[in-house]
Every structure is written in C-alpha cells, then in structure tokens.
Design brief:
Order of helices and strands: HHEEHEEHEHHEHEE
Strand order of the largest sheet: 3-2-1-4-5-8-6-7
Number of strands: 8
Low-confidence stretches: 1-21
Largest sheet: 8 strands, mixed
CATH class: Alpha Beta
Strand content: 15-25%
Radius of gyration: 17 Å
Mean pLDDT: 89
Structural class: alpha/beta
CATH topology: Rossmann fold
CATH architecture: 3-Layer(aba) Sandwich
Length: 253
C-alpha cells in the first residue's frame, strides 16, 4: 500500500453499518493511513473489511496444491488473510504496512516490506504470484503487472482479483458497498479502478495470457451474514466482469 498504491491489501473490521463518524473521515480516498488506523480490525470477521476474507478464500481456490518447495508471492498480503488457505507453500508476503506485516508474520508468512512497483525479489522466483485486491489501488497498472509477471518462473501461475473501471462498479463497489458497511469509506479511489482490456494487454506483455471471470458474494450467504447468521460468505461466479473479477494465467516458456 503506499505512495503509488494502496497500503497494499486492505484490513478487516468494524460493525456491519458503520457509525456516522469514521476514523478515516479526514483522509483522501485510497490513503494508506487508513490501514494503520484500522490495524486492529484485520481479523474481525464482521467488519467493513469482512469481504476481503471472503475474497481470500475465493482466491485460494484458484491456487493449485503445492509441490515440495513451491513459492507463492502474495502482493499486498496485508495481515496474511490468504495464509490459512495456502498451507504448504513457502508463502512470501509483500506489503508496505508495518502493522499488517507483523500480523502476517504471526500467521507464518515470510514478510518483506516493499512496493508492488519495485519488488525486492529476483526474476522467476515464484511458482505462484497472487495480486488480490491490489491493482485497483496503484497509480501505475502497467508497472505493477510487469513486476508481478517478472517474478513468475516459466509455467508459473498468476492469480488476481480486482475491481473494473465501469460506472456499474463505481456504484456497486464504492457507493453502495461503503454505505452498507461492506467497505470502509474512502478505501477506493474511483480513478484507479482497473481497465480490463489494459490489464489483459499488460499481462500479455509479461508473457501471461490471463482469463477473467466475474465473481460476487452468494446472495443467500450475504443475507444470512447481514442478519448475523453466518461469519463468512462464499464468492460465486457471475456472468459479468463489470464489477468484481478474478484473473488467472500461466507464464509462457
């Protein structure tokens, strides 16, 4: 997360419908300071970042079972929400938030403080690179994608999820989600939502043909969660990539 990007992944916590006064009211959209102010809420399952837990589980379903010594690099790892779902990998998490990295280390992630635009890791070091809910926070999409692809060994897998640059997404994922407590106010800057064609083009430049699939929360699960009859909601496929989508692709060679 930081400077040219979000405070790398997000956090989790706070009530379903947040109070009128938020700890981030004085911040600009996409300000990394938000994650420091909410640092104690990463692992609260019913807060305004609860959806990141659901997305981490959905992201992990795209990650294959590890072979001995397999390396997974988790860009924007935040507090390590992916860690419970990808056991068996050498899980390297990169983030700029010190408070988040401390929590990720406590869950077995090997952490590195760094920015997605200049990753302190060698070419071809990873069997899997995961970029979950990060790309909609960077000011240089091409640079972030190039770095992610650079880390992959030939045949390595890129897994991502992010928000589309559409009017529908701005309404659903920002206006509505922030109003009902599924995201903290100001966590996203609408100007940074991801152009899907540009994303596919930049992945191809990095040697990865990425396939996109729309996803959304299960409506019965979301209803149950909203009335406090569940602690998690399963993400399910949807026909459109115009709001929230996943992407996967393997590096050539």
């Amino acid at each position: 997360m930081t400077g040219t990007r979000k405070s790398f992944d997000a956090t989790h916590g706070s009530p379903v419908c947040p109070p009128a006064d938020h700890p981030q009211d004085d911040l600009e959209p996409n300000d990394p300071e938000l994650y420091e102010r909410l640092a104690d809420q990463w692992w609260q399952p019913r807060g305004p970042f609860a959806m990141l837990h659901w997305l981490a589980a959905a992201r992990a379903r795209l990650v294959p079972a590890p072979h001995p010594g397999a390396v997974l690099v988790d860009l924007g790892c935040g507090a390590g929400l992916l860690a419970p779902h990808v056991r068996g990998y050498r899980h390297i998490g990169v983030d700029t938030s010190q408070s988040a990295l401390r929590q990720a280390r406590a869950r077995g992630v090997r952490t590195i403080r760094g920015d997605v635009l200049a990753l302190p890791l060698p070419d071809g070091c990873a069997d899997v690179v995961v970029a979950g809910e990060v790309l909609e926070h960077v000011h240089d999409l091409a640079g972030a994608v190039a770095e992610a692809c650079r880390l992959l060994r030939p045949g390595g897998l890129l897994v991502l999820d992010t928000l589309a640059d559409t009017a529908l997404c701005r309404f659903v994922a920002i206006t509505v989600a922030e109003r009902v407590g599924l995201a903290p106010p100001g966590v996203h800057d609408p100007a940074l939502l991801v152009d899907r064609e540009a994303l596919a083009r930049e992945c191809a430049r990095g040697g990865v043909h990425v396939e996109l699939q729309g996803i959304r929360p299960s409506l019965p699960g979301l209803l149950a969660w909203s009335v406090r009859r569940g602690t998690a909601v399963r993400m399910v496929p949807t026909a459109t990539t115009a709001v929230l989508f996943q992407g996967t692709g393997r590096k050539k060679g």
